[in-house]
Amino acid sequence: MEAVEAQLGLHPKVLADPASIQPRFTSAGGPALVPPPAFLNSDLQDRHPALRRLVSRYDPAAPDELNRSLGRAGEEMVFRFEFDRLCRAGRRDLAKEMDWPADRGEDHRGYDIRSFESEGEESLLEIKTTNGHARTRFWLSRTQYEVAAQNPSTYRIRRVFHFRNRAEMFDIKPPLDAGLWLIPDKYVAVPR
User: What is the 8-class DSSP label of residue 76?
Assistant: First the structure.
């Protein structure tokens, strides 16, 4: 841990350089869609206390601009991936019907991209992108959680990870608490 802290102290731009947000892909030339990691039955708080201290000190998602840039770049990559997937499946008609409301600033819908399965079923994709590994934490809004609960057959969190180093992704289906630890991060506080 000390070595990581020392390197981050010497090279702070590693965590905060929005200009360098471009995905790197596998040798196949695009992101790889992989299965989600196996669910751990251990207590999240008991694992790696030294790593938790380090991450809390150097939180890569803290700078808002970096987080927005990374999120948008992940959305763009997934939109292209979905468009290409539908075209390869002979469903250019569905690819043309895809929608990216988040690109127009419509973040209130609870999902980023409306896509389709090759058979024609709608998919509502909320894209969560990090440069870290598959288990790197990400944030989920109340609206996203509620839209997932209301649309269990069509809603997916598309988890993009290793974005700048062989981008990979997997889908998380509702109910979200079956595949995610959902930890309250913020509370609405009203004086009594």
Answer: H
